[in-house]
């Protein structure tokens, strides 16, 4: 392709078409579809000045990058100042150009701008169907427009096509509306690795095909094995085809992918089990669907996060494959999927792409100073399980809400029906929203008369649904099977949901609990309000007013690390006023406090009704939005926390009747799942507790399911120095 420049006489602008010009989006704290516009030319990345830039120019940029359209554009280096040359200035597009290089401008590299004027764009989430091979120049292919519409793995045997997911078969590309197979000349295991990763599989194995006479694609493909998508591979030389359409000296490309343990199919019936994460030193938290979330690493018995400095698609892919998924679709930065708690274990990670675990990658052990605002996250390719085709929402005002309808076998044919709403709650709604790829549940409804669906789908086809929250499909939850029981019937009383892209995530700070624990002997006459609110054990009803109760007191600091504010389920008009404490209760029960024996038996309990949800403190740069005063709005803002001090009524467990011994202290936030959250696994905290009748020790407090105990905690002589005495 030849460079050319055409001068326009009236304004001396230049229309430039440059061979080898590429675009990308870059910058700080951004989504994958937004960022600073950067141009690659003459072996160097540079930027675009915001002078004369318009939404039409943004449209050209977004479409060139594969997005359907532009949403907006931003001047003045909103995504940070770039580096290197400013390649384009005074860009003026009509919006119909195929590439930014075809828009009028001062000319390539002609600019009087500074990097404070770097332009940015926001593109729509939707992609243009198909993809273009971007590395065509590397192998001397003389066209920049080699584009295919789609790629698939087509099962070799018709009987295997019913398996879910399809793990092996011919690799086919759709070109010019026709599916074509690829000749295996120049095909390598690295190519298979990339194809399998695209379709959600972490590994590949050898497989051979017999010679066939299909229609072959014209090119070979050369991958390194680290690409996230085949479009990032180099396009190889044209393949010489024989007259009978078979490729010279080769056969069709066949791949055999190794699925992660959670996605291993069973013959004919396919995937049956609820999702269970592979047991590794890495986990994902805070994601709406399986295969996405904040990356957390286990080190020295404690889960921590990864800083997003140098976080790349290559490192993200190592995480995805380690967890049994395919390659990474996105490497997210800036705490995009919520902020974690505890230490930041790794920073400035560099991976080759072939490591078995992210813990094998190089990282800067000396680099400090990362905050949880910089927590790294991933979105991984996962196998196509076909779950979305067996569930739908009907009658809602928008696609994110409606009556839940399930496709089932009835009298030998497929039919849609409703789900019984008896026992229907937030956890079940979460599974529905996940199955439909609609994010998190925002509400679960037990009546849907205001969402009339199709009359033919009114009959109940599923009842007794109970989910654990880890399922990928509603059919994986416990339910009654063929023996339906639903006294209320379907139709207007069927189950419904509304979904949201974001959700809050409450996390208790375990260090605050450990540091503030103490005992108090409090006279019964000072506990009348607490008695009325059931904050004392049942034996307190027999305690004379002159006697006392022994209370285990502590402070709790509850952070909202999610992506949306935590708001009580009940509307303001239904909050209950309590004369005794002169405040409104916005949730019937906000937390449970329990003391358990070492075998898990509950020996004492307490509860904290939501006397008030407010922003006690917030991270720097975040303003408080909720306060209790003057019947104010209640909630916890993202990035803020609500502190319940140890001296507040009911912020205790009544241990008057407890014998000396070793116990487990447990706190559960939002125990009834009244408010949807992105991660319920971190809603509980456990500590070891020792009580000798006069003093109490609280130690080894941990969030979530992991509590690693050191041997030293079992030694009484070491505990004595840290004892909490009676006040």
UniProtKB/TrEMBL annotation:
It is an enzyme of class 1 (oxidoreductase). SUPFAM superfamilies: SRCR-like. Its cofactor is Cu cation. It catalyses: L-lysyl-[protein] + O2 + H2O = (S)-2-amino-6-oxohexanoyl-[protein] + H2O2 + NH4(+). Keywords: Basement membrane, Calcium, Chromatin regulator, Chromosome, Copper, Disulfide bond, Endoplasmic reticulum, Extracellular matrix, Glycoprotein, LTQ, Metal-binding, Nucleus, Oxidoreductase, Repeat, Repressor, Secreted, Signal, TPQ, Transcription, Transcription regulation. One of its GO terms (molecular function) is copper ion binding. One of its GO terms (biological process) is collagen fibril organization. Pfam families: Lysyl_oxidase (PF01186), SRCR (PF00530). The lysine tyrosylquinone cross-link (LTQ) is generated by condensation of the epsilon-amino group of a lysine with a topaquinone produced by oxidation of tyrosine. Transmembrane segments: none annotated. It is found in: Chromosome; Endoplasmic reticulum; Nucleus; Secreted, Extracellular space, Extracellular matrix, Basement membrane. InterPro entries: LOX-like_protein (IPR050912), Lysyl_oxidase (IPR001695), Lysyl_oxidase_CS (IPR019828), SRCR (IPR001190), SRCR-like_dom_sf (IPR036772). The keyword Lyase does not apply. Belongs to the lysyl oxidase family. Mediates the post-translational oxidative deamination of lysine residues on target proteins leading to the formation of deaminated lysine (allysine). This is Lysyl oxidase homolog.
């Amino acid at each position: 392709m030849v460079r050319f420049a055409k001068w326009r006489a009236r304004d001396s602008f230049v229309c430039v078409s440059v061979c080898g010009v590429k675009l990308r989006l870059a910058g700080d704290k951004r989504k994958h579809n937004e960022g600073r516009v950067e141009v690659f030319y003459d072996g160097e990345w540079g930027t675009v000045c915001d002078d004369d830039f318009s939404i039409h120019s943004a449209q050209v940029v977004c479409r060139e990058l594969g997005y359907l359209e532009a949403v907006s554009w931003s001047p003045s280096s909103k995504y940070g100042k770039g580096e290197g040359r400013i390649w384009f200035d005074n860009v003026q597009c009509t919006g119909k150009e195929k590439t930014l290089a075809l828009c009028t401008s001062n000319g390539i590299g002609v600019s009087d701008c500074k990097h404070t004027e770097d332009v940015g764009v926001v593109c729509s989430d939707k992609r243009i169907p198909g993809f273009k091979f971007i590395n065509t120049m590397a192998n001397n292919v003389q066209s920049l427009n080699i584009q295919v519409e789609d790629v698939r793995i087509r099962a070799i045997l018709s009987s295997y096509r019913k398996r879910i997911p399809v793990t092996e078969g011919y690799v086919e590309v759709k070109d010019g509306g026709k599916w074509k197979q690829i000749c295996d000349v120049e095909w390598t295991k690295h190519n298979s690795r990339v194809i399998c990763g695209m379709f959600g599989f972490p590994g590949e194995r050898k497989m051979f095909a017999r010679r066939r006479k299909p229609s072959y694609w014209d090119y070979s493909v050369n991958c390194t094995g680290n690409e996230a998508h085949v479009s990032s591979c180099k396009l190889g030389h044209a393949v010489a085809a024989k007259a009978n359409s078979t490729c010279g000296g080769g056969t069709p490309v066949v791949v055999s992918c190794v699925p992660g343990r959670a996605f291993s199919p069973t013959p004919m019936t396919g995937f049956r089990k609820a999702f269970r994460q592979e047991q590794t030193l890495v986990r994902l938290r805070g994601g709406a669907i399986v295969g996405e979330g904040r990356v957390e690493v286990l080190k020295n018995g404690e889960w921590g996060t990864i800083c997003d400095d140098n976080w790349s698609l290559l490192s993200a892919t190592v995480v995805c494959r380690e967890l049994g998924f395919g390659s990474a679709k996105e490497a997210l930065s800036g705490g995009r999927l919520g902020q974690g708690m505890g230490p930041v274990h790794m920073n400035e990670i560099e991976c080759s792409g072939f490591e078995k675990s992210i813990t094998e990658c190089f990282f800067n052990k000396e680099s400090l100073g990362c905050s949880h605002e910089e927590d790294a996250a991933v979105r991984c390719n996962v196998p196509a399980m076909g779950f979305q085709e067996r569930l739908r929402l009907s009658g809602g005002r928008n696609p994110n809400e409606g009556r839940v309808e399930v496709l089932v076998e009835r009298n030998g044919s497929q039919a849609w029906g409703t789900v019984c709403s008896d026992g229907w709650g937030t956890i079940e709604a979460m599974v529905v929203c996940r199955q439909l790829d609609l994010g998190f549940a925002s509400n679960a409804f037990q009546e849907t008369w205001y969402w009339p669906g199709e009359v033919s789908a009114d009959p109940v086809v599923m009842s007794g649904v109970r989910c654990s929250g880890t399922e990928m499909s509603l059919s994986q939850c416990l339910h009654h099977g063929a023996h339906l029981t639903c006294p209320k019937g379907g139709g207007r009383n069927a189950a419904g949901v509304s979904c949201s892209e974001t959700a809050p995530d409450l996390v208790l700070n375990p260090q605050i609990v450990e540091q503030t624990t103490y005992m108090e002997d409090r006279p019964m006459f000072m506990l009348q309000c607490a008695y009325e609110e059931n904050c004392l054990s049942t034996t307190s009803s027999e305690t004379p007013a002159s006697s006392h109760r022994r209370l285990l007191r502590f402070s709790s600091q509850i952070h909202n690390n999610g992506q949306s504010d935590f708001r009580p389920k009940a509307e303001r008009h239904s909050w209950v006023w309590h004369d005794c404490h002169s405040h409104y209760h916005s949730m019937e029960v906000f937390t449970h406090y329990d003391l358990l024996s070492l075998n898990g038996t509950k020996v004492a309990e307490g509860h904290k009704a939501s006397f008030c949800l407010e922003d006690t403190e917030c991270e720097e740069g975040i303003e408080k939005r909720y306060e209790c005063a003057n019947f104010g709005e209640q909630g916890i803002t993202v990035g803020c926390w609500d502190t319940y001090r140890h001296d507040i009524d009911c912020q205790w467990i009544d241990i008057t009747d407890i014998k000396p011994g070793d116990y487990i202290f447990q706190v559960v936030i939002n125990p009834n799942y009244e408010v949807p959250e992105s991660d319920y696994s971190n809603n509980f905290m456990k500590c070891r507790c020792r009580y000798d009748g006069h003093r109490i020790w609280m130690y080894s407090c941990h969030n979530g399911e992991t509590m690693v105990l050191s041997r030293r905690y079992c030694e009484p002589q070491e505990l004595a120095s840290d004892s909490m005495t009676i006040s």
